[in-house]
Amino acid sequence: MMSAYNRRLFEAQDPKMSVPVDSNINGAGQSSSELFAAVGAIVEQNKMLMTELQSFVTKLKAMEEQSEKNKRSADRATVSNNPTKRHCRRVDPALCKTARMLHNSESFVVKFDGSTSFTNQVNAEVLKKLIKQIRETTTVLKGDQLISNYSDDEIRKACYNIYANLRNQHVANKPGNEDRPARYKVLKTTRQRRQRTFERRWKYVTEKEKVKWSGIDQEIMSDEELVTVQDDETMIVHPPQWRTQECTDFLYTCDRRYQENQRKAPKYKRAYRHADSNDYYSKREIPNAQGRYPSGVFVDCKCFKLAE
Known about the structure:
Layout: H1 4-13, H2 21-81, H3 93-104, H4 121-138, E1 139-142, E2 145-148, H5 152-172, H6 180-202, H7 207-212, E3 223-229, E4 232-238, H8 245-260, E5 269-272
Parallel strand pairs: 4-5
Antiparallel strand pairs: 1-2, 3-4
Helix pairs in contact: 3-4, 3-5, 4-5
């Protein structure tokens, strides 16, 4: 290290080469301040970026939640406008068989009474005993625990099926109900036809029409009656009297689109009675339209009796 004496001699020989110790130290301090300032600026910038990133993530989550809500709403609208076969609510056939065998056995003295309600005191006691026996029959040993193969809700449904059969037999045996099975079959057939008609028509509805007519279902369709005259089968269409002409024109437009896209001729011819005839319109009552159907489907509802 250069001594103070030698430093002075060096500076005396060449003043330009003088490097004061104090100035060197101040330069280093100034460089450190600038470095700290730069680091501080970078930290502040990172904080701002993190704040913006958190705000963006929050907005993204809100958008995803809203998108999920819109998707669920669209799915519900699709299900209501494109009804498929309803979810199978059958109980396990093995469970139904077990419940029926226990109920009909001689050891099971008390039976369900089909002439009263399912919540009647007598039926409630029968249900309680039957559930107990079914649970004992269907319980298996798994390890150190006894576990039933069926839930209480499934067992209750199996028991209700037994009561429902007895109830139907009781109602069918009442005077005046001899033709009830036939009438029920006709109603079921017409309902299935309306369902197929609606599904067929809805396939050819545009997106704009889906927005306008969202909410309609098979209850808006016309009733159809199969008539055979001299081996010629014809489907007589009976439009509902409470349906507006605008809705009728929309359904006929969908029908025309369907027929234009068919490669084979339809199985039955479709025909209409004369507008002045007594059986031109369907005798079916107007469905409950509160909150279910869009505007433009029904004529003045005050003129008709709402179905219960």
